Amino acid sequence: MDARDKPGHDGRNKLAPNMTDTLEASRPSPTAVPAPPLLAVRNIEVVYDDVILVLRGLSLDVPKGAIVALLGANGAGKSTTLKAISGLLKTEDGEVTRGEILFEGERINGIDPDKIVRRGIFQVMEGRRIVSDMTSLENLKLGAFTRRDREVDADLDMVFTYFPRLKERTGLAGYLSGGEQQMLAIGRALMARPKMILMDEPSMGLSPLLVKEVFAIIQTINRDLGVTILLVEQNARAALSVASHGYIMEQGKVVLDGTADELRDNEDVKEFYLGGAGDQRKSFKNLKSFKRRKRWL
Ligand SMILES: Nc1ncnc2c1ncn2[C@@H]1O[C@H](COP(=O)(O)OP(=O)(O)OP(=O)(O)O)[C@@H](O)[C@H]1O
Ligand SMILES: [Mg+2]
């Protein structure tokens, strides 16, 4: 039987054993206790303005050191998920009304956003949200607002080595190109020395070449600095090229998850998220098959 025909107990279709199982399988000692994920979102429900139910029992795990992709169409609830984790929901009259969010094993839902930054989670918002009437340098220093150590200048140098263009552009950040603004937003996150970065659609509005460049930097940051990344994207292809695991969400729930390779090979994912399965989609007579119902619904 196809794995997709056997939803798990939570109603979600699973392509792979869950991530902790995978890690456990590769562990040398059978007696070792499996490491808990760095971030665990457990069955959360989110409501805006006391009435609008947007997340309906969403769960996901992000292992330490991983890049995990969260994919889905417009309005699926991807940004809401990130805001629930970073605490920024509060600024939009949103609330986690059920379930819990655990970071390093501790519950963080309900905590103020600045305290969540201090714990090591930094969100790079959708649309970049840099301060346009400040310089790049001033924007980067803003990212270090929680820090009291003396290594801020050294970290500024580090950010400029990742993004040399930012050093050259000394004018106001509002005049930077879309790609440069995205790089500045990522650089600002790095200035907080986060354990984990939540990225909301870093590819948005960028040319294919710049998308490649930004995603290469995301991968480098993850590898060099060991920063764990939860990556929200509509560009599933770009996200799955750097992620080890992915979740697909629709209407406030995860409907499918698996390793990046498994998701890339999945027919539904190809059809609905990766821009068609090769030549078939180009042919009008195959429109019927293209329009068929998603198997996970
Ligand atoms: N502040 C808010 N108040 C009320 N409803 C909201 C608010 N923010 C989002 N929503 C609703 O929640 C749903 C999910 O929105 P969300 O922004 O999380 O989706 P998304 O997956 O990030 O979409 P996109 O790909 O377009 O960014 C949408 O129906 C949206 O209208
Ligand atoms: Mg969004």
Automatic annotation (TrEMBL):
Q: What's an example GO BP annotation here?
A: L-amino acid transport
Recite the UniProt keywords alphabetically: Amino-acid transport, ATP-binding, Nucleotide-binding, Transport
Q: Per the record, which residues fall in region Disordered? A: 1-34
Superkingdom field: Bacteria
CDD domains hit by this protein: ABC_TM1139_LivF_branched
Q: Which residues form the ABC transporter domain?
A: 39-276
Q: Which GO terms describe its molecular function?
A: ATP binding; ATP hydrolysis activity; branched-chain amino acid transmembrane transporter activity
Q: Name one Pfam family in it.
A: ABC_tran
What does the UniProt record say this protein does? Involved in beta-(1-->2)glucan export. Transmembrane domains (TMD) form a pore in the inner membrane and the ATP-binding domain (NBD) is responsible for energy generation.
Task: Write the protein's name.
Answer: ABC transporter ATP-binding protein
Q: Which organism is it from?
A: Bradyrhizobium amphicarpaeae
Organism placement in taxonomy = Bacteria, Pseudomonadati, Pseudomonadota, Alphaproteobacteria, Hyphomicrobiales
